[in-house]
Write a structure and sequence with these properties.
Layout: H1 19-30, H2 34-41, E1 46-47, H3 48-54, H4 60-72, E2 76-81, E3 87-92, H5 94-111
């Protein structure tokens, strides 16, 4: 199976090797609220409602779509624990955990006075 970002397509034709994968990854992370979800999951697995509660002014449908996208990109995994009670947890994959320090660095940079 190809790396997740090999599947993402960008408009605009040919790019130098590696650049299209970089831009595809950046585009995915920039979509609201993908980066915020990854940052929240850095602390550990969370249930859907816990993720929604941590993201103010984001609709549940938006969070659900973002989680499906992040799962498809190989950054987040959905785990169902049959219980009882039934519990669905979301957690970072190793690939998602790999990008987390960079997102933390970017967030720290963005919050500094410039």
């Amino acid at each position: 199976m190809p790396p997740p970002y090999d599947r993402l397509q960008l408009a605009g034709g040919e790019s130098p090797p590696g650049e299209s994968r970089f831009l595809a990854a950046l585009t995915s992370l920039a979509r609201h609220p993908n980066a915020a979800i990854l940052r929240a999951l850095e602390a550990g697995p969370l249930r859907f409602n816990e993720i929604v509660a941590g993201l103010t002014h984001v609709r549940e449908e938006t969070v659900g779509g973002a989680l499906r996208e992040l799962d498809g990109d190989g950054l987040v995994r959905r785990h169902v624990d049959a219980g009882p009670p039934l519990r669905v947890l979301y957690r970072l994959t190793p690939l998602g955990a790999e990008i987390a320090p960079s997102l933390r660095t970017l967030a720290n940079w963005a919050e500094r006075p410039h």
